[in-house]
Write a structure and sequence with these properties.
Elements lengths: L1 H7 L3 H26 L6 H5 L7 H25 L4 H4 L2 H12 L9 H8 L1 H15 L4 H8 L8 E5 L6 H8 L6 E2 L6 E4 L9 H4 L3 E2 L3 H10 L6 E4 L6 H9 L5 E6 L2 H14 L4 E5 L15 E6 L28 H21 L7 E6 L8 H13 L2 E4 L20 E2 L10 E7 L3 H19 L4 E5 L2 E5 L5 H21 L10
Parallel strand pairs: 5-6, 5-8, 6-7, 8-9
Antiparallel strand pairs: 1-3, 1-4, 2-3, 9-12, 10-12, 11-12, 13-14
Helix pairs in contact: 2-4, 2-6, 4-6, 4-8, 4-9, 6-7, 12-13, 15-16
């Protein structure tokens, strides 16, 4: 089929357009499928700017324009009633070509899909004309405006991959054609004007710089891993933060990059290869199945947790306003609330798991969400457990003015970025383990007392159905009240008999 088409190409332009439509259709299919499931494989930009996409600029334009016109395209195709089962199975390519026929460039008769739609061009144009009358507008652009959501303009940030290039060299090379300045907070971040297009720049294509927002770049920097450390990145793909960790560690030490989704593992490996990082080990599996006491994690000193979230803080950056789920008239409903509740439950679970790794000294929990339920509420819910492991909240980037919502004591340690003021809405919480020998001794004493009490029968046991449930009260308020009463009795008895008093524990 392709061979026949090649014979009929009259110019390189036709050849380029033919392949661009098919690359765009693949990206469009992934985007629409992820949007329908509310579980995207990647953002529109990250899918387009993969190394496997050859004509990135043309593909990007074609996907974005098709998405902008998608409600109109669907209405036109429904009204024209030209699609049979065969073509409905190729709807992503049909959408792309229909956009070109009605709103884009001229379509030549190469490829079966192009021939089919060009044969029905009159029916498509008639359906469009009727749609304009039905919606009481004069032009197709008026139809597009009905669905338009204002876009957020923000500077173009690029992070220098110091595994391949130093910051000053990148500043000099990028500055030959653009106005560039260093960011005043993230040392390997450069700032360019909003309209700067670097997608085909050699420094981007060879992995010397990564197009990464400021808020996203602050996450790995907040963890601050040292060269030679072992680090666990719990939810790694697409990998920008993972390779940033490798750069901060100067390629020394070891990073275990964990990712569950098979397709995202492929994207992660592409990012690692592009970065040139050699100290990253990809673990295809569920982070929740990683045993904290396994010897393979015994030297992990820092853990980055950037779990699945609503993505509400980066909707404009990811071009989510182009997706069907964000079209005009789509309001938050019960389904959205249920999704947030499920996400928050998952986020609490993975954060509790992250805090349980014995050797870990630093944990960063981050989201690209603006919702309190995914951010402050999750952190607040794990604080008692974090304290029991010896963790406390610390303040990443103390000079940053925007902090957490004041919903619990210690909120000022949390960091937020604003989607309007800062271009992205991120949340960062940093847990650091207290360097306190007394705390370690208290934990050891607590564990010893728990074992002693269990041997003495101070553990409540009861049966529920066929399951035998064991409840240890050693860390509960009830236990502390019992312990205080018992110590008071011992002290009173010793006083009456002239004996000495020694506390059972140093709680």
């Amino acid at each position: 089929m392709v061979a026949v088409a090649v014979e009929r190409w009259r110019s390189n332009g036709e050849r380029s357009a033919y392949f661009a439509r098919r690359e765009a259709a693949k990206v469009l299919g992934s985007v629409l499928q992820g949007d329908a499931r509310r579980q995207a494989v990647g953002s529109i930009k990250s899918l387009i700017y993969r190394p496997c996409i050859r004509n990135k600029k043309a593909t990007f334009a074609l996907v974005c324009q098709t998405l902008k016109h998608l409600p109109i395209i669907k209405d036109v195709l429904d009204a024209a009633t030209i699609l049979n089962a065969k073509w409905k199975r190729q709807q992503d390519l049909i959408y792309i070509i229909t956009y070109d026929i009605l709103f884009g460039q001229a379509v030549s008769l190469v490829g079966d899909a192009e021939k089919f739609l060009m044969h029905h061009k009159d029916a498509l144009q008639t359906a469009l004309a009727r749609l304009l009358v039905k919606k009481n507008v004069k032009t197709p652009q008026d139809l597009v405006d009905l669905y338009r959501i204002p876009e957020v303009s923000k500077p173009r940030y690029v992070r220098v991959n110091t595994l391949k290039m130093d910051v000053d060299s990148a500043l000099l090379e990028l500055g030959q054609q653009n106005m560039v300045e260093k960011d005043n907070m993230v040392p390997d971040l450069l700032i360019l004007p909003p309209s700067t297009d670097l997608h085909n720049h050699p420094l981007v294509t060879n992995g010397s710089v990564f197009m990464q927002g400021k808020a996203s770049s602050m996450v790995a920097a907040a963890l601050d891993p040292k060269p030679g450390w072992e680090v666990l990145d719990a939810c790694s793909a697409p990998g920008n933060k993972t390779v940033h960790l490798a750069a901060l560690m100067r390629g020394k030490g070891k990073i275990i990059a964990c990712e569950l989704n098979k397709e995202r593992v492929i994207r992660l490996k592409e990012t690692i290869k592009l970065s040139g990082a050699s100290n990253i080990e990809v673990l295809h599996g569920d982070f929740l199945n990683c045993n904290p006491n396994d010897s393979s994690f015994s030297k992990v000193r820092a853990l980055l947790l950037d779990p699945s979230c609503s993505g509400s803080g980066t909707a404009s950056v990811r071009l989510d306003h182009l997706l069907p789920s964000n079209a005009a008239g789509h309001a938050a409903d019960v389904t959205d609330t249920e999704r947030l509740n499920k996400l928050a439950a998952f986020q609490r679970k993975v954060l509790m798991h992250a805090l349980s790794f014995p050797a870990v000294e630093r944990v960063v929990y981050s989201t690209c969400s603006i919702h309190q339920i995914e951010n402050e509420d999750v952190v607040k819910s794990v604080l008692p457990l974090a304290a029991s492991y010896g963790f406390q909240l610390a303040s990443p980037f103390p000079q940053w003015q925007r902090r957490g919502l004041p919903v619990f004591e210690g909120f000022q340690h949390l960091l937020r970025t604003d989607p309007v003021e800062d271009g992205e809405g991120f949340f960062i919480a940093l847990f650091t383990k207290r360097d306190d020998k007394n705390h370690s001794e208290k934990q050891a004493t607590c564990r010893n007392n728990s074992k002693s009490l269990a041997r003495d029968g101070c553990t409540s046991r009861f049966r529920s159905g066929k399951k035998r449930i064991v409840i240890n009260f050693a860390h509960t308020k009830l236990f502390l009240m019992w312990l205080h009463a018992k110590q008071s009795r011992r002290k009173r008895d010793n006083f009456n008999t002239g004996g000495s008093y020694r506390p059972m524990t140093d709680y």
